[in-house]
Task: structure prediction
Amino acid sequence: MTQTQVNNPDKRMILVCCGTGCLANGSGPVYEAFCHALEGNDQFEVETFAKATGCNGLCEKGPLVKILPDDITYCHVKEEDVSEIVEQTLLKGELVNRLLYRDPATKQYYRSHHDTNFYKKQHKVALRNIGEIDPTAVQDYLDRDGYRALKKAVKTMTPGEVVEEVLKAGLRGRGGGGFPTGLKWKACASTDDPQRYVICNGDEGDPGAFMDRSILEGDPHTVIEGMIICAYAIGASAGYIYVRDEYDLAVKNLICAIEKAKKCGYLGKNILESDLSFDIEIVRGGGAFVCGEETALINSIQGNVGEPWDKYVFPTEKGLWGHPTVINNVETWANVPVIVNFGAEKFASIGTEGSKGTKVFSLVGKVVNTGLVEVPMGTTLREIIFDIGGGIQNGRKFKAVQTGGPSGGCIPENLLDLPVDFDNLSQAGSMMGSGGLIVMDDRTCMVEVARYYVNFLASESCGKCVPCREGISLLLEILTRICEGKGTMEDLDLLESMSSTIQQAALCALGRTAPNPVLSTLKYFRDEYLEHINNHRCPSGVCKDLTEFYIDPELCTGCGRCRRNCPADAITGEKKKTHVIEISKCIKCGECINNCKFQAVKVK
Amino acid sequence: MKVTIDGIEIEVETGKTILEAAREAGIDIPTLCYSEAFGGQGVCRMCMVEVKTGNRKRFVASCTYPITGEIEVQTKTPELEEIRRNIITLLYRRAPNSDLMKKLYQDYSCSEVKGVDPEESCIMCRLCVKACEKVGANAISTVLRGTEKRVSTPFDEESPECIGCSACADTCPTGAIRVVEEGGRREIWHKSFEMLRCEKCGGYYSTLPVREHVTEQLELDYADDSLCPNCRRKKLAKEVAEVR
Ligand SMILES: Cc1cc2nc3c(=O)[nH]c(=O)nc-3n(C[C@H](O)[C@H](O)[C@H](O)COP(=O)(O)O)c2cc1C
Ligand code: SF4
Result:
């Protein structure tokens, strides 16, 4: 909503992305090199300085360097490039073309990342500050409307009005369940118990997901501000941020942000001279996926085993230490200051009927542009995957997109025009989850995909209740059998019957959603199951026991690419002559099919 | 508060669980991890029932669902039957060596599955953990995650907390906890205890730590009494008779 840049013409800023992805690609030394080059350099017309920011989302092109107010974006910047950027761009005002973003499809160069397809369709609300500010500088946050919402709430609104505003905005929880945030706050505020708590869920256990991490690392103050506003609205005196154990940088930046917020008087006693007193403590996660489930998380904070309990009484009534507790996801918190600042109506003007605002997705898998994207609710899968994501890698065919994390479902090509929101995804047999989008191409076996996720869930089930602990284990046994060609039609019936029992009887949402990968693939890709069972054949050439590759002599040009790439030396053939796969040597790794430019390698 | 269970209207105190209310009304709901002594755990999910509030229908575990409003409950529907049959199937697959599960597997005409470990008889109902907790020893707990989850002492070693009372084994519905009593010693959970011997009948009963624990808990003093419960009762009866 606030797309404002710090476009101060008297200053020039070099924003070096130091999100986890860019850091891993070496942005640390790039930042150092800029600092070094700028320090004491008096050749610049305007004051010029460098900043380390959070993740910009386009991790694949990192390290990213942005220059403001010129609005220039450089990709894959290395330490060695820094002096050239200083000479060419900062001193002469010329672009370093080779470092500009190049569209993989059109091969066109873009001066600013804002003009690329990857960014054009995005709408940053939760991620509004990330990549634009130094997360360790509270002033940067303040310069971009930071803590203005808190001041507005505390000074001009009653707690009830704040709850109403969040309710009116239609904000739904971004952590998976999509429960209306305002309702949660209202329920908690209306309890008799005066001891209430606020929790931020930053456990983010979905493999491959990093939206919450980016927010915690890149804009910790927005989460803190959201929590303080809630504390004011519901009358809480203590808050906890539960952070996934591996997220060291997030913890570091949070500690720094909490300290600075205290110094500024936004945390502590009598916040902004009001009656509100509120403090935040950081708790490091227990390292289990299930600890992201809110009751397991509460158990974990209390020092108990991270197991969920039946939520027939909501945590808003009986949560942490038995007291009313509001627990929201990191991204949910990041939306709160925006709602209070700009009003519920403005917020609700984005999105669909039932899902307001935007959603951050981590777009990964076989898509050209992988990274973090934030789009209005209701954007179609096609727009996300093909316009923003740039389509499928290596010109292969799209097959399915898996949404919602490990217990989400797989959505097929004919539903690509589905506008993404909470309700549409559930109806399609998948879910929003925390916003994982894993794109799969035609080299993916859907039975194996189901087996893969079920295997993850089998080891992440907490093991408390029978349907989940034992049921997922049986699903895994059956799926493994099918992938090995030993499945039967009775197995399919048992898969379906057990799946429905797990959905209906498991204690927590981990179990209740665990059959999604099985049921959604059975729904949309049943023929693949049948091929495995009846014809002992894996049509995608993935399940090794059921795969045989051959080379189509009509299509083979004899280029030799497959022969050179085969790790088992199973392919023979002379140059420009048809090649042949020696079945006895073939280890079914699929290197040949992946490498053939003429689609000549086929699955029998 | 009025609730309807299987069409029967009953008056219930707020906060009672559906299971308690049903049992009081003489309606039986099957359970495997429930004991009145410990309350609902929500672990086995055999006691799932269908709850209707307004137009909303959902499945809940009756042992943990507290009644706080007017609801309509069904305890026996085809869907619930399927859930229970599947749960028995799963537990038989886990614990094929348990007589209880063998019997239930037959009774429920379950789908054919192969046991994972033919020697296994624990169904992870956790009643043993609850019993140990209640005794106040807290020697055993669940360890690990997912299908690996099991009940054990810390690090599978002998636990300093264990007093050898065998309350765990006595509560176990499948006889999965090994207790060996031989030559005046009781072995349980990797720990060996010298048993107390009744000075009257010579039979072995209980262990020394148990007697100490009970003495401490109840502030009783049976310092010089080394009788088994049976002989002690007889002795007491005789003493009372003499006083009269
Ligand atoms: C197995 C499991 C894992 C979960 N992991 C997370 C997580 O990592 N982060 C999160 O915010 N919510 C997670 N949730 C959802 C939480 O239980 C809870 O609904 C959420 O934190 C509420 O916040 P929200 O309303 O803002 O989404 C998980 C749920 C389940 C069942
Ligand atoms: S559904 Fe799975 S994760 Fe949730 S309580 Fe049951 S066993 Fe644990």
